[in-house]
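Before we proceed, please read the two lines closing this message. Report back on whether the structure tokens fit the sequence:
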Amino acid sequence: MLDRARIIEGALEVADRIGLEPLTIRRLAEHLGVKPMTLYHYVDGKDDIIDGMVGRVFDEVGATDTTIPWKDAIRARARSLRDALRRHPWAIPIMESRRKPGEDILDHHEAMLRVWLSTGYPLPVVAHGVAVVDAFVYGFALQESALPLGESGGDLTEASEEVVVPLSPERYPSLMRFTMDHVMQPGYDFGASFEAGLDYVLDGVERAGAVAAE
């Protein structure tokens, strides 16, 4: 049965396959097996559909847990956001761009900010924390979506063999050393930098909060 929820679900399916830009009302209608004008009985147009799609991605992230220590809560939310963006990379540039966010998006942000404010840090420190953590997660997800990672999701060996190994070690000694001695070593996983980077960011916010309290 066609309804708004099915239209949003279908739009997600199409965008996951071909990206957001090629998603049109006509293409979505073809995917759902209906005529384009039929969709307008349930949605107001592509922007309305995109609002719903972003809301669905936020639903996959889930609400921030307000009952556990703040760093654990923000870390869990960051991991969940990254996982959702890996499933829907088309959403990375538009997750915070909607002018008419639904209650699902607003509820998500309310819970997240409640955790940040529970730190007792001054609002400028909280604001920096919110901005930097989100910038890190979105930026990391964007980089992951662009890199030629292997089947494991974090292996750059094949790309390194094609791009870096043929280079002259005399001209590119640092690049060669980093690639050969680290990236191409057994067990290397680009995704491991996400956990390390998240620790760097959260530890930095904690230090800033402690300084502000002095």
Summary: The mean pLDDT is 90. Residues 13 and 31 are 9 Å apart (CA to CA). Residues 123-146 form the longest helix (24 residues).
